[in-house]
Amino acid sequence: MQASRSSHAERAIRVSVRRVAAALGTLAAGAIASTAARGQQQRPDSSGFVTVEGRTRLYFEIRGSARDTVIVPGGVMLTPHLASLRDDFTVVFYDPRGRGRSDWVSENKRLTIEAEVRDLESVRSALKIGRAALVGFSYLGLVSAIYAADHPQHVSRLVLMGPMPPDHETASRYAPAERQARSASAAARFAQSRAGVDTTDFAAECRRWYGAFGSLYVGDPADAARITTEFCDHENETPARLLWRNEQVTRSLGRRWDYTRTAAAIQAPTLVIQGDRDLAASPDGGRRWAELIPQARLIMLSGAGHLTHIERAERVLLALQRFLSGKWPAEAMQVRSRQ
Question: If DSSP states are collapsed to H, E and C, what string results for the chain?
Fold first, then answer.
């Protein structure tokens, strides 16, 4: 049985390397933490599990006890960087199904965008949160946007950071040569790092993966040195699991997915934060969300990649604090067309 699992993992990694521009491009970046956040984590005020459909348990942490609440899907990725928001808000972080400390999900039919939207509602309901702001990063930006459109009564404000574009057309036309070059170089480094080592050690394998592919997620390759991998202690974050899981979520969108009407239905004030050198999610996708959502503004960070909360940490945190407090950051631009 162990040999079978190892063989499956090897095949998954080989497939993932071949598809890195697509599979990593939109979804896999999120599990990265920065060196600056190391050692700054405080214990959560409370933590536990919410049981959602299929008896799947989602891990959550609550930081702070202020009046206003912020829900952040993707705690495994964002808790180290956004925990300081607890000084002004009650912040609920949770790990999506199959990520971090949440239960692994092996059935592909249960790994869908729609299921993750339902999970967000289950977390809100189980924790008895009436109304909250949402912060969605990468593909969880799409999840949060859909939720905001479907449940306007429960969403006070919406933040999309490096979001997956709202439609297939915008996503598919983004194929920068730099991403292809970095992907090829990273794949070669990863293959070399695995030569003659024990690839069954999931934590070590995870660290080798991000050591090779980290440069895909930052605008300046030198900033890859700011990335660390404490999250690799969770088996769900191994490359084989993460990339397979994210491929299933992507497939659930269908071939010609289009959420532009969903974007137009969002009522909450929305802040889009986007790096203009994002190789994982099209910068045009960030602009597109800001154009479509009626009350949206855009912060475009020059030279930043997908991990704006690491690459431009101070600016992003200041923008979040101001926006979530009810004010627009001065640098936020209104780009919505009058048509």
Answer: CHHHHHHHHHHHHHHHHHCHHHHHHHCHHHHCEEHHHCCCCCCCCEEEEEEEHHHEEEEEEEECCCCCEEEEECHHHHHHHHHHHHHCCEEEEECCCCCCCCCCCCCHHHCCHHHHHHHHHHHHHHCCCCCEEEEEECHHHHHHHHHHHHCHHHEEEEEEECCCCCEHHHHHCCCCHHHHHHHHHHHHHHHHHHCCCCCCCHHHHHHHHHHHHHHHHCCCHHHHHHEECHHHHCHHHCHHHHHHHHHHHHHCCCCCCECHHHHHCCCCCEEEEEECCCCCCCHHHHHHHHHHCCCEEEEEECCCCCCHHHHCHHHHHHHHHHHHCCCCCCCCECCCCCC
Look up the CATH number of domain 1-332: 3.40.50.1820
* pLDDT tens-digit readout, 11-35: 544 444 444 444 444 444 444 444 3
Q: What is the pTM of this model?
A: 0.90
Q: Where are the domains of the chain?
A: 1-332
Lowest mean pLDDT among 30-39, 82-91, 208-217, 280-289: 30-39
